[in-house]
Hints:
It is a single chain. This protein is an alpha+beta fold. Strands 1-2-3-5-4 form a five-stranded antiparallel β-sheet, with helices on one face. The chain is built from three helices and five strands, in the order H-E-E-E-H-E-H-E. It has helices spanning 4-9, 57-73, 87-90, and strands at 17-20, 24-28, 36-42, 80-83, 99-103. The chain binds guanosine-5'-monophosphate and zinc ion (ZN). Residues 4, 15, 27-31, 39, 85, 91-94 line the site of guanosine-5'-monophosphate. Guanosine-5'-monophosphate binds at residues 4, 15, 27-31, 39, 85, 91-94.
Amino acid sequence: MDCLFCKIAAGEIPSTKVYEDEFVYAFLDIEPQAPFHAIIIPRQHISGADKINGENSILIAKVFEAVAKIAEKENLEKGFRVVNNCGEEGGQTVGHIHFHLLARRNLAWPPG
Ligand code: 5GP
Ligand code: ZN
């Protein structure tokens, strides 16, 4: 499948790894929106949050387990934000579900 994030998870396209395990791969965003900005993905291709179901939702739980591990490893005890963009109006530009982990600055709310 011609998917950028599948290729990154497979190591076919280089990335700066932040965390990996059997289910999840995490890497630094190429265009960071915060001093710490990682992208966390399930290795399995799911196109977006609108395709989460009873068969694959365990992988989303694995993503959030990874969030907690990365937060501890990167000393993000002051806080962080996890963002998922879904679909055109949601601002999704890569069609493999991913979660942005943003930290090390004050993050405005509402995000706008
Ligand atoms: P989206 O807009 O779909 O929620 O987020 C896609 C994110 O992937 C963007 O923040 C963008 O900077 C990042 N991105 C796109 N292409 C690459 C790439 O080749 N390498 C890395 N590390 N990040 C990428
Ligand atoms: Zn993919």
